[in-house]
Amino acid sequence: MAAFTLHDLEKRVQDRAQAAPGPSYTRTLIDKGVAHCAKKLGEEAVEVAIAAIAEDRGRVVAEAADLLYTCSSSSTRAASRLTRSKRPWRNARGKPSGREGRP
Questions:
Q1: Which of 19, 56, 64, 69 fits 24 for a cystine, CB–CB 3.0-4.6 Å?
Q2: Could you state, in order of their start, the residue ranges of all structural domains in the chain?
Q3: Quick one: 55 exposed, middle or buried, by C-beta within 10 A (0-12, 13-18, 19+)?
Q4: Fold for the domain defined by 6-15+24-90
Q5: Is residue 73 within 8 Å of 13, Cβ to Cβ?
Q6: CA torsion sign, 70 to 73 to 77 to 81?
Q7: C-alpha span between 62 and 51 (Å, rounded)
Q8: Phi (first) and psi of residue 97, to 5 degrees
Q9: What angle, rounded to 10 degrees, do the helices at 57-82 and 34-53 form?
Q10: Which 3-state string (H, E, C) describes the chain?
Q11: Measured between alpha carbons, how far is 64 from 19 in angstroms, rounded to an integer?
């Protein structure tokens, strides 16, 4: 089985963003706007933290996957405002986070 990449995730989100709003959770999330997407992103991040505190590896993995998906969905909605690009992950790759070199 081939590795699933951020590029694959980005493509999946873009495809789902074009779907009809009813059956597509992604489209519904995006249509609710940047503020709603940001709130959902925060909720997912907290769920990852709670799973990590509980030292539940399976839950951390599942919640981290949700976080990445939500982040990608949120980026799709906000891309034109924040990055002026249809490829938000491509813009993030290779950019220093400001944390490099820190222990």
A1: 19
A2: 6-15+24-90
A3: exposed
A4: Helix Hairpins (1.10.287)
A5: yes
A6: positive
A7: 9
A8: -85, -5
A9: 160
A10: CCCCCHHHHHHHHHHHHCCCCCCCHHHHHHHCCHHHHHHHHHHHHHHHHHHHHCCCHHHHHHHHHHHHHHHHHHHHHHHHHHCCCCCHHHHHCCCCCCCCCCC
A11: 24
Q: Identify the pLDDT of residue 84.
A: 40
pLDDT digits (tens, 9 = 90+) for 36-79: 888 888 999 999 999 999 999 999 999 998 888 888 777 665 54
8 is written with which tokens? 């694959």
